[in-house]
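User: I'm new to structure prediction. If I give you an amino acid sequence, what do you actually give back? Let's try with this one:
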Amino acid sequence: MQCPYCGAENQLRVVDTTHDSDDGIRRRRECKACSRRFSTYERVLRATPMLIKSNGDREAFDREKLIRGIQISCAKRPIPAADINSLVEEIETHLQHIGQDEVSSRVVGDMVIEGLKRLDPIAYIRYAIVYLGLDNLTSVRDMLDSLLGDQQSHTNAKGSGAASGAADTGKRSAPTAAGSDSEPPPDSSS
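Assistant: Good question. You get back a string of structure tokens that encode the predicted 3D arrangement of the chain. For your 190 residues, that looks like this:
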């Protein structure tokens, strides 16, 4: 290994080693020639299948490319970087456990869609517009209606006990359908 500062080869010593939860190893190193310190990060490379693109091309799975694509969808959204890394780790682990040499890139895209749907609806919509090739407002609206329907049914399932409590007190809950007057307008700053 070469020192990134002075270029000396094989003049490095390991000062400290730590392990992280992703089977990675962080090593703090010091150059004997120039006495400068720096860190290196080692991660076990597991075999992931080749991805078959929609046009038939084959491409190696690229973790960093996937992270960048997800980060673009999550720009200016309150999504911690740890959640993005966790989603990518989940996808990569799934690909490694499939046990196939080649997998359709659609598998990765579908997993990203599902992961973003759990993390943030706006990031999900941004990614889905590009991934699903939604090229007109009608198809985007249909996707939004589907998402709102999913959220509504999820809210109803969670709040079924709360709804009966509201009925007991004689109060009616406000409608929550899209476009109702009782809902605040969407945040236009994103």
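You can read the tokens as a compact description of the fold. Here is one thing that stands out. The helical segments are 63-73, 81-98, 105-119, 121-131, 137-158, 160-168.
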